[in-house]
Amino acid sequence: MSSSNLQIINSDCIIIGSGITGLIIATVLQRKGIKTIVLDKNSEIGGRLATRTISAENSIVGIFDCGIQYFSVDSPQFQVWVDDWLEHNVIKQWSRGFAQGKEDGKPRYCGINGMSGIAQHLAQDLDVRTDTKANEISYEKKWLVETQGDQQYQGDMLVMTSSIPESLSLLDASFIPLPLEERFSLEQIEYDRCITVLALLEKPSNIPAPGGMILENEYLAWLGDNHQKGISPYGYGVTLHGTADFSNYYWDSDDAEIAYKLVTAAADYLDSSVIKYEVHRWRYLSPKAFYNQPFLTLLELPLIMAGDAFVASTVEGAVTSAIAAGESIGQRYKV
Ligand SMILES: Cc1cc2nc3c(=O)[nH]c(=O)nc-3n(C[C@H](O)[C@H](O)[C@H](O)COP(=O)(O)OP(=O)(O)OC[C@H]3O[C@@H](n4cnc5c(N)ncnc54)[C@H](O)[C@@H]3O)c2cc1C
């Protein structure tokens, strides 16, 4: 690449990660008149809010929630966002519990067009750049984020919403030290992994209504029938999540072996042959420990870190962290 093609794009705040945390922070800041650019290394927005499509012959198309399957609400501040998504037909209530035969009465929500619909709704008025990995960052009066392309991003404030190990390795690669105490706390945060199989079936599954099952099987943690859920009208698509033990043991196995093991373990519930499948490996499924504040901010540098690792390994945890981080950035900008 010739350096003459290099373009520097300015914003008030650069946010790394277009998962729910990054998108909520960008929305909060935009409402305060603070300009943001959100960067994501993936080709799709949403991070773990991921909806995927598998096409087969004869116009059979399976649409699958690949990451998070549903969420619930506890806090009034999260309820405000959820009410907005309900009002805009982005989400719907799927059930009131998945423990078989035992509904607990608490609403479980899902995206009407899949979970990634929440990310698309949030991103519609934001500047989000996909296929844009932050490779290196530097700070000299302003942040400069270098990516693999011809564009670099400059801003007063940097927000990292990538997983903690990814954020730490970006800081290390960029020779930006954190204070020892903060660094030590962040290093303690490890993540569970999850292997997911998306299976497009020949005929409807045998999974009981409403189409989601939490399992305590050696191999399987979850079965989600996307057809019953309503997001896959033209294909019987089932999402199978492996347990943490299964995912650790088979992480490096080939896709065919993984699919065979999980599909066989679920055979009674699938009750159909599989037309096509895909395997997805979630390296950062959920943090096993949490930072002791809703976000991390430094006095020395205009740097904020936020995400589910700061509150709880749920969408609500991520949103709680994002709202607190967004408000704090707003305050800092006023000074
Ligand atoms: C299989 C699975 C099941 C789940 N089940 C539930 C559930 O039942 N209920 C619930 O509430 N939650 C569930 N969750 C958790 C929930 O999805 C997460 O808590 C939430 O989505 C986290 O959002 P986030 O924005 O903090 O992180 P993420 O969504 O992970 O976003 C981080 C983003 O940063 C990007 N990124 C990383 N490094 C870089 C870089 N260098 N440059 C640019 N971009 C970068 C990544 O591509 C990613 O898009 C589940 C998650 C998974 C994977």
Automatic annotation (TrEMBL):
Pfam families: Amino_oxidase (PF01593), NAD_binding_8 (PF13450). InterPro entries: Amino_oxidase (IPR002937), FAD/NAD-bd_sf (IPR036188). Residues 112-325 form the Amine oxidase domain. GO terms for molecular function: oxidoreductase activity. The chain crosses the membrane at residues 6-29. It comes from the Bacteria. Keywords: Membrane, Transmembrane, Transmembrane helix. This is FAD-dependent oxidoreductase.
